[in-house]
């Protein structure tokens, strides 16, 4: 499909332009686009010696099933480059992430990297966060606090959410449980004028572990187009 083709060309270009044989530690994000990044890494023999750091159980599987060297962020707290997907990206390279409920480990691994690179298909390009991705900003919360966080989201922020929803699992009864044993609340605000400020406000609410707003972090973003070309934002 055009979307899969877009994911692939973006991922391949990002790997080819950002990972070299002299890198020692690379962070691997989560989701479906990053699968193509690992596919490209596996095609390049000179990248096989590098240690790869996961951002989720899914990401860990990608690394181990590819036969790549798996490392932990505890062993390698300094990362050369982290490559990850995104749910929506604005022209300042602010992003909504967490569609796959992995944003806590993704944030740790992205922040530990000297260079953070995002890859996506054309659907993720946005003029303002909250206009293309309308499922809500993913917020990872400690389970016992999810109700009080929900209340705080609806009463203590400078902007009111249009909805706040506890993310329910599809093939498991009850809520989605993250790799860290937590819940996810999706809060939709409509177009977000100041994603950085909103992210900071939400992060301060008691019970919140991490917010899926990755602002002022990425150095470059690759978007695969339907015609197989790649649009690069930096
Ligand atoms: O959940 C996440 O943060 C993923 O990186 C997600 O944002 C991208 O998933 P996709 O590559 O399957 O669109």
TrEMBL record:
<dbReference type="InterPro" id="IPR037171">
    <property type="entry name" value="NagB/RpiA_transferase-like"/>
</dbReference>
<dbReference type="Pfam" id="PF06026">
    <property type="entry name" value="Rib_5-P_isom_A"/>
</dbReference>
<dbReference type="GO" id="GO:0005737">
    <property type="term" value="C:cytoplasm"/>
</dbReference>
<dbReference type="GO" id="GO:0009052">
    <property type="term" value="P:pentose-phosphate shunt, non-oxidative branch"/>
</dbReference>
<keyword id="KW-0413">Isomerase</keyword>
<comment type="pathway">
    <text>Carbohydrate degradation; pentose phosphate pathway; D-ribose 5-phosphate from D-ribulose 5-phosphate (non-oxidative stage): step 1/1.</text>
</comment>
<comment type="similarity">
    <text>Belongs to the ribose 5-phosphate isomerase family.</text>
</comment>
<dbReference type="GO" id="GO:0004751">
    <property type="term" value="F:ribose-5-phosphate isomerase activity"/>
</dbReference>
<dbReference type="GO" id="GO:0006014">
    <property type="term" value="P:D-ribose metabolic process"/>
</dbReference>
<dbReference type="InterPro" id="IPR004788">
    <property type="entry name" value="Ribose5P_isomerase_type_A"/>
</dbReference>
<protein>
    <recommendedName>
        <fullName>Ribose-5-phosphate isomerase</fullName>
        <ecNumber>5.3.1.6</ecNumber>
    </recommendedName>
</protein>
